[in-house]
Specification:
globular, Growth Hormone, Chain: A, single chain, transmembrane helix, mainly alpha, 18 helices, 0% strand, 2 domains
């Protein structure tokens, strides 16, 4: 976002910028969805990696995220360039992530533990590239507008494209992969190119984005992390969002198993995903309206309850069949749409509130912590599901040596994809009642902020320093 002048109308964001920002969602959704959906299944059913080991492999690279994401957030907060503080990092991520993502599914002639090591290392590289891009990307909406409800409207476009990209990853990726090493290799290359295109498009598409954020970032990383931890709205939002993300992660990891062993059709993974993302394409305006009507907290409670309720209803699938399962997933999808839209809108509010109160640019630190925890709990979802499968006696295999699963494994598949994510999500709903950053509270903070800390204009020295700097 080019910091060359004050934003003339900090409440308005043009359609071109909204779409330019939103197209980056193809990176966010595809990288978040495909490993969560397919990587565990790829290791256990193509590379013959034991389920418990595969779950650990998926989680371990996320420990690095706790370091990488906070560092990238701090660096982007302190960046001064003619492209603004965030956009250079979008470009850096585009150099690393697409290639490492393709290599993750390259399918070398390895099985068992050696295959697990290879996947773990390439997943670590991909997670690093994702951190370079996603942390500054998430910080940008809070700096585009000062209006509480405009942020929800701005992010509506992002959620629509997230729904489309989830459909791509949930429908096209399994179809391309096809259960073979060669298919997974092709899928990795195809979606690596999709990642590259979306990351570059968001970099160029946000060139004219308004900037209303704070112009300074002071203090050490330790001091800023401490400031983030003392923000009550941020910590409660991080907690409730983590519960929601964990529930979604468990459900995503279990979807291929649910299709294969409960519905009895591996191709049902595609139709189940269509049932999940279809509501996201049509219900975003409804959730924007509900956020205004109920405030964001009330709408978040409603969306989490719908997600959990739809998951629990899936328990009757063995008795009521595939059509019933798809209808339940549509209920889950309506709730999921609200969760996705509202948590990022509320994160932008938290960043804006901290900027008003502190007078500093710390959005990168907040989104760094957020993204690190988000990635960790999403990967933990697959790990938890792997442990549930292992506890149920699930037998790993490869395409040339199929096995018959015991009845206990079928029960583990069912419980892991229904009751477990539903209960986790309901815990997030309970935490939402403690979140208290409403529109009225944010407006009050802005009204009491000193004019020189409002962050809507550059000082002469800051402007000249920016113009002298390169990206």
């Amino acid at each position: 976002m080019a910091p060359t002048a004050a934003t003339p109308s900090p409440s308005a964001v043009s359609l071109g910028v909204r779409l330019g920002y939103a197209v980056g969602s193809f990176c966010t959704a595809n990288f978040s969805t495909i490993p969560g959906l397919l990587l565990l299944f790829y290791m256990t059913n193509v590379l013959a990696v034991p389920a418990a080991l595969a779950g650990v492999v998926l989680f371990l690279p996320k420990a690095w995220d706790l370091i990488a994401n906070t560092l990238v957030g701090r660096w982007s907060d302190r960046t001064v360039s003619r492209w603004g503080p965030r956009r250079p990092w979008l470009l850096a991520g585009a150099v690393v992530l697409p290639v490492s993502f393709a290599l993750m599914f390259a399918g070398p002639p390895l099985t068992g533990a050696p295959a697990a090591v290879y996947v773990g290392l390439t997943f670590l590289a991909a997670a690093t590239g994702y951190a370079l891009y996603e942390v500054p990307y998430k910080a940008m909406p809070a700096e585009m507008t000062t209006d509480y409800h405009e942020r929800t409207s701005l992010l509506q476009w992002r959620m629509v494209l997230i729904a489309i990209s989830i459909a791509m990853s949930g429908i096209l990726a399994p179809a391309i992969a096809g259960g073979t090493a060669g298919g997974y290799r092709t899928m990795g290359v195809v979606f690596g190119l999709v990642l590259l295109a979306s990351m570059l498009a968001s970099f160029f598409g946000t060139a004219r984005a308004p900037f209303t954020g704070q112009q300074k970032s002071e203090g050490t990383l330790r001091e800023q992390l401490a400031a983030a931890r003392t923000s009550r709205p941020f910590m409660w939002l991080l907690g409730l969002s983590s519960a929601q993300t964990l529930g979604v992660g468990v459900m995503l990891a279990g979807s291929p198993y649910f299709a294969a062993y409960i519905i009895g059709d591996t191709g049902a993974t595609t139709t189940l995903f269509a049932a999940l993302v279809g509501p996201m394409l049509v219900t975003m305006p409804l959730w924007v309206w509900l956020a205004r009507r109920l405030d964001k907290r009330g709408a978040m409670i409603l969306s989490g309850t719908m997600f959990a309720g739809g998951g629990l209803l899936l328990l009757a699938t063995p008795a009521l069949g595939a059509l019933y399962a798809h209808l339940c997933v549509m209920v889950v999808g309506i709730g999921y749409a609200g969760l996705q839209l509202l948590q990022y809108s509320m994160l932008a509010d938290v960043i804006a509130h901290d900027g008003v109160v502190s007078g500093e640019r710390r959005g990168g630190v907040f989104t760094g912590l957020w993204t690190a925890v988000e990635n960790a709990v999403a990967a933990l979802g697959a790990t938890i599901y792997g442990w549930v499968l292992s506890a149920g006696g699930f037998l790993s295999s490869d395409p040339d040596h199929p096995v018959t699963q015991p009845e206990s494994a079928h029960l583990a598949v069912m419980i892991g994809v229904t009751a477990v994510p539903a209960l986790i999500t309901l815990a997030g709903v309970l935490m939402t009642f403690r979140y208290d950053l409403t529109a009225a509270r944010l407006a009050e903070a802005m009204a009491h902020a000193r004019p020189e800390r409002s962050g809507t204009e550059w000082s002469d020295s800051e402007r000249s320093g920016s113009e002298r700097s390169g990206a």
